[in-house]
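Appendix B, Record 12. Input sequence as logged:
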Amino acid sequence: MRSGRRSKGGEVRLDRFESAGFLTNLCARLFERSIADALRPLNLNPAYLPVVFMLADTGDACQTELAEALAVRQPTMAATLNRMERDGLVSHQQHPTDRRMRTYRLTPAAEGRLQELTELLANANASALAALSSDEQATYLQLSRIVAQTLSEITSTEDHL
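Logged structural output:
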């Protein structure tokens, strides 16, 4: 894959449409915009979705677990959880063994919307991937998982240097 080209002055210039980082970021922003549009009538923020689906899977989790699992910085996760609590989507309770920590769980109101959210996201995914064949969709998802895992390992290693 071509990652750059030489300009008239001889320096190498990045061709953004041949850059995995640029294209991944562009897709993410466009996906987020599509999901935000779909969530607007429900008065939900797209930033809530990773937390909602993780808590739906785990039952409860502390802020640190959520931040690490979702690759979000602690202050960002704290702000997201505060907004979600304000909006009635999560509740917190004291951690059973560490009084300094809280665990979060979905409220019954949020649990009641899981099916609706799952369908909304399935439709957004289907629309975004509609130009790809079933095999291409499976390949895209598999390659995305590999890249995400690689980046996760690189980031974890660099954080400990």
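Residues 141 and 147 are 10 Å apart (CA to CA).
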